[in-house]
Write a structure and sequence with these properties.
The complex is a heterodimer of chains A (267) and B (232). Chain A has 267 residues and is an alpha/beta fold. Chain A has helices spanning 55-62, 89-98, 107-110, 117-127, 133-146, 163-175, 193-210, 221-227, 245-250, 255-263; strands spanning 17-26, 29-39, 44-48, 70-77, 80-83, 100-103, 181-185, 213-217, 230-235, 238-244. Chain A is 37% helix and 24% strand. Chain A has a 6-stranded mixed beta sheet with strand order 6-7-8-3-9-10, sandwiched between helices. Chain B has 232 residues and is of the alpha/beta class. Chain B has 8 helices and 9 strands. The longest helix of chain B is centred in the last third of the chain and has 16 residues, at 185-200. Chain B is globular, with a radius of gyration of 18 Å. Classes of the chains: A alpha/beta (267), B alpha/beta (232).
Chain lengths: 267, 232
């Protein structure tokens, strides 16, 4: 049984992640350009912009999946500052397994499709060093019910699940090791509206209860409004506007943000 | 009494970049203080900027220039220059905002919505639930609705959920935008009592009320925004 952390116990004064002047170029083409920001424990940051704005490139750099052309990413877990691209590859992998999680848009990219639902969750606990079968099994069952999957489906394979269930299973797989930092790329993309609502509410509650810091890339402004505290708006690889989520959406200052917010139906 | 909000040389305009860069002035040179135990009612015709002003006081709109000092604990924080994190902290502990409309979160029950501000402040669940239930009863919201999400409720029912969420844990500054607009006389009176109780126990209140009867029973001071419109 994973315990719910009191979010006040986290040191909220030190940022968990600080990006400084991040730039990723693909030859002449700009992926993202000169992006700087800090993220604090328990905070949810949204990155919005249309396709090609650089938001996914930025997320890949932040999550350690792609090396920026220039700039730094400083991390601070448990009071030990490290620079993401200065440490060795094995150390980076170890960090990725234990301290952060990535929720992919397509659950097939985040799940092992040939392993049972319970195995998908249990595997992550074994990565962490847990060996007691009974405990792993009961933790897997607990997480299935937290993401609202019937516990009698524990031995079924992800391919026997609907898209919404697969996404919720992926969420359990990512959150079971209790990461400090979670990256999400369009977590509700490709789901029906009613299924989206259920996943969004679940995400909102889990992020709050576990005191996780999260970075969510989405093109859906309603998703951003519901889940995020702060928002960065990207265009052509650069951040054009940032601030409190509701302020950016209700009183947008940049021409591009005004275009984005006026282009959607009220949500 | 201690000033809870100090507004100084506040100016707001909108620039519509995608409509030829047109500049829409809202108001300028707005200045006033509101102390603990006061209820300031904003006046003026529709379009004078009453809601824009309330939104600025909540950090939802950005001032174009000027200052909004909010008393947060022992300090004053200027919402015009505060970081998003600072504004979030101020909202969690010091300011509550009630709009006319409830922004419904899918699937979240009425009881969970109402007790949320208490839980966010670290109050334990049993206590929070009890307080939420007391307030929902006082606002005459039928008990069968407590465990339902308010998406399908009537306008008046949704508004009472919204009010309950605000008054379950009255902060030291309350911003009220027409909280009684769709209520019947009985519930309107309950809300008037809640506002007056909060004020008497030291809250600073800034509100917009079109209903003259409510205005007369709540106001300790009035401010006509028309004067600031002319200057804008």
């Amino acid at each position: 049984m994973s315990t719910i952390k009191n979010r006040l116990s986290v040191d909220e004064n030190a940022p968990i992640l600080t990006a400084t002047a991040l730039t990723r170029l693909y030859g002449e083409r700009v992926g993202c350009r000169d992006v700087s920001f800090s993220l604090w424990p328990g905070e949810v940051l949204g990155i919005v912009g249309e396709s090609g704005s650089g938001k996914s490139t930025l997320l890949r750099c932040l999550a350690g999946q792609d090396r920026p052309t220039s700039g730094t990413i400083a991390l601070n877990f448990d009071g030990v500052p490290i620079n993401l691209f200065d440490i060795s590859e094995p150390m980076r992998r170890q960090l990725m397994r234990t301290k952060w999680g990535i929720v992919h848009q397509n659950p097939r990219d985040g799940l092992r499709m040939d392993v049972s639902a319970g195995g998908n969750i249990g595997e992550r606990l074994m990565d962490r060093g847990d060996r007691h079968y009974g405990k792993i099994r009961s933790s897997a069952l607990d997480w299935l019910s937290r993401v609202e999957i019937e516990t009698n489906r524990v031995d079924d394979y992800p391919r026997q699940f609907s898209g919404g269930m697969q996404q919720r299973l992926q969420l359990a797989r990512v959150l079971v090791p209790e990461p400090k930092l979670v990256f999400m790329d369009e977590p509700t993309g490709g789901l029906d509206v009613s299924v989206q609502a259920r996943l969004l509410d679940l995400l909102r509650v889990l992020v709050r209860d576990l005191g996780i810091a999260a970075i969510i890339v989405t093109h859906d402004l309603a998703v951003a409004r519901l889940l995020t505290d702060r928002l960065m708006v990207m265009k052509d690889g650069a951040v054009v506007e940032e601030g409190l989520t509701d302020q950016v959406l209700d009183d947008p200052h940049h021409a591009y943000t005004q275009l984005l917010t006026s282009a959607v139906l009220a949500a | 009494m201690t000033a809870m909000i100090k507004v100084h040389a506040l100016q707001k305009h909108f620039i519509m970049h995608n409509q030829g860069g047109i500049r829409l002035p809202v108001f300028s040179d707005v200045a006033f203080d509101v102390s603990a135990g006061e209820a300031l009612i904003l006046h003026g015709e529709s379009g004078v900027g009453k809601t824009s002003l309330l939104r600025i006081l909540y950090g939802n709109y950005k001032p174009s220039s000027g200052h909004v000092l909010v008393r947060h604990g022992e300090d004053y924080i200027d919402l015009a220059t505060a970081t998003p994190r600072a504004i979030l902290t101020v909202r969690r502990k010091t300011i509550r905002y009630v709009s006319q409309f409830l922004r419904v979160i899918p699937r979240v029950t009425t009881l969970d919505i109402v007790k949320d501000p208490l839980l966010a402040r670290g109050i334990d669940d049993t206590m929070a639930t009890e307080k939420a239930k007391d307030l929902l009863s006082r606002l005459n919201l039928a008990e069968r609705l407590w465990h339902l999400a308010p998406a399908t409720f009537s306008g008046g029912e949704q508004q009472r959920v919204n009010i309950a969420r605000c008054f379950v844990d009255p902060a030291s500054i309350l911003l009220l935008d027409e909280p009684t607009a769709s209520l019947d006389a009985k519930n309107r009176d309950v809300v008037v009592d809640l506002i007056n109780e909060a004020r008497e126990s030291g809250a600073a209140i800034i509100g917009i009320f079109h209903d003259e009867y409510v205005r007369d029973r709540v106001a300790t001071r009035r401010l006509d925004l028309t004067q600031f419109k002319k200057a804008a």
